Amino acid sequence: MTAVFALPPAPPLAGAAALRAAIRGFLAAHLPPGDATRRANSWSVADADFSRALGAAGYIGMVWPREYGGHERPALERYLVLEELLAAGAPVGAHWIADRQTGPLLLRYGTEAQRRKYLPGMAAGTLFACIGLSEPGAGSDLAGVRSRAEKIPGGWRINGQKLWTSGAHRAHAMLALLRSEAGSERGAGLSQFLIDLDTPGITIRPVIDLTGAHDFNEVFFDDVLVGDEALVGAEGNGWAQVTAELALERSGPERYLSSHALLVALIDAAGDNPVLRATIGQLTAELWTLRQMSLATAAKLAGGEDPVVEAAIVKDLGNDFEQRVPQLIQAVLDADLDGSTDLVRLLAHLLQVSPSFSLRGGTREILRGIIARGLGLR
Amino acid sequence: MSEMRAQLVATAEALFPTAPDWLALADAGFPFLLVSERQGGFGGDWGDAEAILRVAGATALAQPIGEAMVALALPENARWPHDGRLPALAAQVEGVVSADRFTGVLAAVPWGRAAGQVLADCNGRLLLLPAADHVAEGSSPAGEPRDTLHYADAPAQCVGHGELKAMGAFVRVAQSAGALAAALDLAVAHVNTRVQFGKPLARLQAVQQALAVLASEAAALGMASAALARALDAGDASFEIPAAKLRANLAITRGVAIAHQVHGAIGFTRDYPLHPFTRRLMGWRSDFGNDAFWADRLGTLAVTAGGAGLWADITRRGDR
Ligand SMILES: Cc1cc2nc3c(=O)[nH]c(=O)nc-3n(C[C@H](O)[C@H](O)[C@H](O)COP(=O)(O)OP(=O)(O)OC[C@H]3O[C@@H](n4cnc5c(N)ncnc54)[C@H](O)[C@@H]3O)c2cc1C
Fold first, then answer.
1. Of A245, A249, A286, A322, which one is the catalytic site residue?
2. CB-closest option in B181, B208, B246 to A372
3. What does the alpha-carbon distance between residue B179 and residue B229 come to, in Å, rounded to a whole number?
4. What ipTM was estimated for this complex?
């Protein structure tokens, strides 16, 4: 059998009920009021106060060592907390990247000094990070990165431009992939740098998205001088490190729950309408299956393995689901998109933002290429 | 996988592709998988049954092994006469029961004509009926017997309560998981060998991307099936049965189309071994509750729970 996803369902997690009760209690006390649309796609919604409260309660950096501000909890407990936060539509956008990938990357590749400098603030929910991968000429073809870091005595001089950088205007640091070897090509000669965004020479300009919101940015580097301590991992090892980083970001619950707030609102408004009920049933079936797949992949990750293909499958199916939730609901809901109720505001919002779900973090086509490689077709 | 399950699977993988008749399957014990050891069965669990039914699906086994497993497992004290005739499952029943007699019609009974006895779901009461008085033979899209059984004042024994549609849906989900995986295997093998434009089809990106989707659908169906079996073993799958059947039906719709598309005309022939999987898969979407039936059931559960309650239910059930 061609088993590209041979994972069994994750076994039940000991103590899950108590942990769920605790995080739901926290949410009941701390979930900020605000427009319903902020509960949709909520890992893109930043709220520094919420992040600080979440960090203080011990729900950020959960798996990191205590000496760096973490809590040394099992990886699947962290997964449980994440899915509860997202299902409730909590505004976790400010700290999400630091918790999901920048922190873990520092633990894997960073120096002791880097860990001490950044991790405690990240775990406290007060120090935020952003991802500096994409550039005008480097999208899916990430090896096309041209922004460069030039070696100078005691440090590096950085020039170039990053694009589509989510949350750069709120973040304290960017983990950037830069060409550190002049004249190198493709994946060779790339290195990762953690750059404080208040360093002179950095200009952050908003890129307004199609809804009029400011989430991503373009970030310019003009003769930005950083010390040797900004290099993360080995010089020239950036490509391998980035690949490892991307695997962390593909199979999480954020890959299928971005439209969950809309499904919740529909269920609460459905009454005894049989057409809505049928749509809810269909979507619930997919929701349940995706959760099992995402969780099974998380269990494999927690076991120290690298489920690259499984993660790509979860993200591709999950993004497809997140995108069809608003479309299928629009097809059966008898309502004008006039913004008069939470339900239609959520619907109108998600219809607009959902095309981005299969772009960010690796496009649908790139993911399917990874799955096809898993099938031995390329 | 437990040692017993691995052994059962190995036996099934060896036996099922030989097109065994019913007695050969019965001799190997497969119909008694879910019957307790005390009753002379294997004492297997739903996870074991799921694993075996996957093999049945992946080998296009033309016998109602799943229906028989369920029919034999559900009645607590019923005995199956080992006369070479199989037990059948009837989820669609119209008729009346009075004082241990049944008069009515059982519709769409898989292999009904060959049944020695029939377990029928009469509004949640499980009746054990003898072979039918009169059989109107029919067939499924895959050409398998799907008969209408007529009874007039036949002896009927009430052997418990349950929902056969739900148990039948489990059978179809597990078989589908195996069958779609087998269709994926055939598709991958085919595109690696079929040459067009001077290279194997597998080198074409459009083909690669289509097969990635098929693989993802097979993965989703496999997970739904395994998670459903786990819920059954946890003692209650009233939520997971509709969820898994709906997801299976979606995976079949998407997956079968791709399996055929990448095969081209050869996959549309009688000789090529794709149709034993795809014709069954397409028929199974209607068996034991179609999309409308299970979507209404699951939608009702969700609406009754409420938006937040649905999430609470899904996670609580998963945490079992
Ligand atoms: C909301 C949002 C937030 C983002 N946040 C960040 C961020 O924080 N940091 C960051 O670095 N980046 C971020 N990105 C950028 C994201 O990673 C890129 O959009 C993505 O990698 C695709 O690159 P591109 O937009 O240049 O599209 P392109 O690479 O130009 O692709 C355009 C289309 O062509 C297809 N295509 C490209 N190559 C192939 C191929 N080989 N085979 C088949 N099809 C192909 C793509 O799949 C896509 O459909 C964000 C994007 C969005 C939408």
1. A249
2. B208
3. 17
4. 0.97
